[in-house]
Design brief:
Chain lengths: 235, 606
């Protein structure tokens, strides 16, 4: 009887194995028309380049958004109030080292995971930022567009990183941002005070800019670590 | 209490004294910039605000964004005066540094404004190194290959920092630099540089997010002297076109005459007889103009010698027939009407003779008979003669003096009772038919040479229903013998009427035809367009040989005439022989190349 149950359980597991695998396969490829097609393979090098381009663009746009917000809402004397009074960037599940030597000691795997984590940690705050920015009376359209664009690009970046992880590290990761849920709650509150909300939003933008820079740096480090073709020797 | 008060007063006095001496606490320093060359270390510089006259020390303090711990600058020397150098251990990335500088001297201290710095945003690399520019010779043309090295401190190999390069080129004398972006590579090929010129090259770099470095020292490169492909192509094209132009010019030169004919069709130039172009070219103007000078021209006094060129007749009762003829008697000549000799009137009607009536002449000349030449074509002075060019033996004119008269129809100047009506060269002659009849009637001569054939259109119109034979009719009608009595059909009418001389038969008879004759030939006939006759030559006997033009239209006339009157000359091409008037000057007639006769020579001097 026990043997029979074990056998059944095992059979169930075996039959459900593809489901787990499919659950682990992150994406379906879609062509322009939207229909699902066989994914054409892309080389790892090219994929990495594309991911890096994404990260560069995101950083550039976040920098521009910051400047726009500063010019619009932050009078000059308050520039010094950045990151003061407890407005800090939200903490991450694990700390990222801040010096070159330390960072260069991080393995590829951790580099990728760090990037992924960074990307995933900003998804919610960006959406929140869009809503708050739209509530301002005279928020420039460029700012709103950029914010929206960035959050879209972040999604693509996440997908790219996941593919990279799968390719480079041969591991599948469940796309779940559950670990970040608890950090996002503060952003659901709406502060009644205008200055505070402005400062908080400003802080958000600054923090996002930093994290975008981090992502870019990590990815570029990762690129030069690829041994094939000695990629960064000539640079 | 007293001690504290004394201390205070003393301090106050000391401050006053010091202030009087010009010393004060230091001025506020200012952080000018912080830079990181490789994203691993960074340096901050400040400028002092004024030391207040006392030795001042500066200290830099900082704290990180999420801690309150204040640290002092670890290294004041490495980066020079008024600077603070943060080494690798003290540098944290993606963290804001809050930096202040404090200046302090004996009297006090002063704190600068704080500055927030994040290291990753203040990256400015060092300049690139080992810039080389080499001329590379290529089949397309030489170009310059510029190459350099990355700054030593930048760690691009691990990908920690990514550098983008830029170079600029110019000649010594240019104002503007030409900039090129080289991306991440460490070389660049510069094309389109001018040959035989020296160029200056500089390079700088920038991290992907950061500041541009300074430009390197200038590197000089000299381009070799070469001919660009483009220029050599233009040279070849130019040579080719020059060649083509030369060939065309030479061809045109060779064929210059035919080209001239093609472009500029020949215009018959005026030909002045006696005007020698060669003489003119040689420059002897006197000789040239002497040929133009005709002795005795214009006629001034001697009216007798005036060559009558035309006879003008007015169809007007008031006007008299005026005869302006040299062949007339002298009296007649003198009575020439004051009206115009050369009125031009006659030129409008090319077929007619102009007779100027001369009363005296009429009386004096008596029964002169008139010959009028008639032409089918407007050769007003031709008379038909015998075939030979010799003067007719039987012609009475030859017996008389052979003056050279232009188209003189009536040759004889003798005092025969003839009316000589020389036909002028330029004017057709009109004459009044009845008058002439009157003239003729009393002078019916036995001479066969002078006959007047005329028609009185008013009465004879119906007679000449046959156009072909009207000449003969008229001729036949008015026979020599019948002159005495006017033809029955002819009534001398008082009215004046123009007649047209149609032809002159060999017997020196004028065949007349009234102008209003409906049967006369249409004016538009081609035969009747010329007023002049060409002089073919002048014989030694002072006979003008006129040339009769061959024209097809006129052949008919003559042929008709031939059929009608046997006395007409058989061939229309015979040159007419005219006896010239003896009154003509004896000098030779100059015949121009195209057959024109120089009338000026013939003009007698007065």
């Amino acid at each position: 009887m026990n043997r029979l149950k074990v056998l059944q359980a095992w059979l169930w597991c075996v039959s459900l194995w593809p489901c787990w695998l499919s659950h682990a396969v992150p994406l379906d490829c879609k062509d322009e028309t939207g229909s699902l097609t066989q994914c054409t393979s892309i080389s790892q090098e090219k994929l990495l380049d594309r991911v890096i381009q994404h990260a560069e663009l995101i950083y550039r746009v976040s920098e521009e958004s910051c400047t726009l917000f500063e010019d619009m809402f932050i009078p000059y004397p308050l520039h010094a109030l950045r990151n003061q009074g407890g407005n800090l960037c939200h903490t991450k599940p694990f700390p990222i080292p801040g010096s070159k030597s330390e960072i260069q000691q991080i393995s590829d795997k951790w580099l990728l995971h760090s990037v992924l984590m960074l990307v995933q940690s900003w998804m919610e705050p960006l959406i929140y930022l869009q809503t708050t920015l739209s509530r301002y009376d005279d928020a420039p359209d460029a700012l709103l567009n950029k914010t929206k664009w960035v959050s879209d690009k972040l999604l693509s970046l996440e997908q790219g990183v996941l593919v990279l992880i799968r390719k480079m590290l041969d591991e599948g990761i469940l796309t779940s941002s559950s670990i970040f849920e608890h950090t996002l709650t503060p952003y659901n509150e709406q502060s009644p005070e205008v200055l505070e909300s402005i400062l908080r939003d400003y802080n958000l933008l600054i923090c996002f800019k930093k994290d975008a820079h981090k992502m870019e740096t990590f990815l570029k480090l990762l690129k030069c670590r690829q041994s094939n073709k000695l990629s960064c020797l000539s640079y | 209490m007293r001690n504290s008060g004394a201390v205070l007063i003393l301090t106050f006095i000391a401050i006053l004294t010091l202030q009087a001496a010009g010393v004060s606490p230091p001025g506020k320093p200012r952080l000018t910039s912080c830079r990181s060359p490789e994203k691993e270390t960074f340096t901050c510089w400040w400028e002092p605000g004024g030391d207040g006259g006392l030795p001042t020390t500066y200290a830099l303090y900082y704290h990180l964004e999420n801690s309150e711990t204040v640290y002092e600058c670890p290294d004041y020397r490495t980066a020079g005066e008024n600077s603070c150098f943060f080494n690798k251990n003290d540098t944290s990335l993606w963290v804001n540094y809050n930096i202040t500088v404090v200046a302090s001297n004996a009297l006090g201290k002063n704190i600068s404004d704080p500055v927030e710095v994040d290291v990753v945003y203040i990256v400015q690399p060092n300049t690139p190194e080992h810039v080389t520019a080499v001329v590379v010779h290529d089949e397309q043309g030489p170009f310059v290959r510029v190459s350099w090295e990355k700054p030593r401190t930048a760690d691009t190999r691990s990908g920690w920092i990514t550098l983008l390069y830029q170079l600029r080129v110019k000649q010594e004398k240019d104002k503007e630099w030409e900039e090129y972006n080289a991306g991440m590579q460490k070389y660049y090929n510069v094309f389109s540089l001018h040959p035989d010129k020296e160029y200056m090259v500089q390079v700088r770099c920038k991290p992907d997010h950061g500041f541009w470095s300074e430009w390197t020292q200038t590197t000089y490169v000299k381009m070799p002297d070469y001919i660009t492909r483009e220029r050599s192509l233009w040279i070849m094209i130019t040579i080719f076109f020059v060649f083509i132009v030369v060939i065309l010019t030479w061809t045109l030169n060779v064929k210059r005459n035919s080209v001239k004919l093609c472009l500029l069709p020949a215009v018959p130039g005026p030909k002045i007889k006696g005007f020698d172009k060669q003489l003119l070219k040689s420059g002897k103007s006197e000789e040239v103009f002497n040929t133009l000078v005709i002795q005795g021209f214009p006629p001034t006094t001697d009216y007798d010698n005036l060559l009558v060129e035309y006879l003008e007749v007015y169809d007007n009762e008031e006007q008299e027939l005026v005869q302006d003829g040299k062949d007339l008697s002298e009296d007649c000549m003198k009575s020439k009407s004051p009206s115009d000799i050369d009125s031009g009137r006659g030129s409008c009607d090319s077929h007619t003779l102009l007779l100027e009536k001369c009363m005296d002449g009429r009386e004096g000349s008596g029964s002169n008979q008139h010959q009028y030449s008639q032409h089918g074509e407007t050769r007003w002075a031709s008379t038909e003669s015998s075939e030979s060019q010799d003067p007719e033996p039987g012609s009475p004119e030859s017996a008389n003096g052979r003056g050279k008269t232009w188209p003189v129809v009536f040759p004889s100047p003798q005092p025969q009772p003839h009316h000589h009506y020389p036909v002028g060269a330029a004017k057709p002659a009109y004459h009044s038919v009845p008058e002439i009849l009157n003239h003729l009637s009393p002078h019916a001569m036995s001479s066969n040479y002078h006959q007047l054939n005329h028609q009185d259109i008013l009465q004879q119109e119906r007679r000449f229903s046959k156009p072909a034979c009207r000449h003969s009719q008229s001729y036949n009608q008015f026979n020599l013998d019948g002159i005495d009595t006017p033809a029955p059909g002819v009534a001398p009418s008082p009215s004046l009427e123009y007649v047209e001389v149609q032809r002159v038969n060999p017997e020196n008879m004028l065949l007349l035809r009234p102008l209003s004759d409906p049967n006369r030939e249409p004016e538009g006939s081609d035969c009747t367009r010329e007023d002049y006759s060409k002089v073919k030559e002048v014989t030694s006997n002072n006979i003008l040989l006129l040339q009769r033009d061959m024209s097809h239209q006129c052949v008919d006339d003559y042929s008709q005439a031939d059929q009608c009157t046997t006395q007409q000359p058989p061939h229309p091409c015979k040159p007419a022989v005219h006896q010239s008037n003896s009154g003509m000057p004896q000098e030779a007639i100059r015949v121009m190349g195209n057959g024109y006769v120089d009338s000026t020579v013939l003009m007698p001097s007065y």
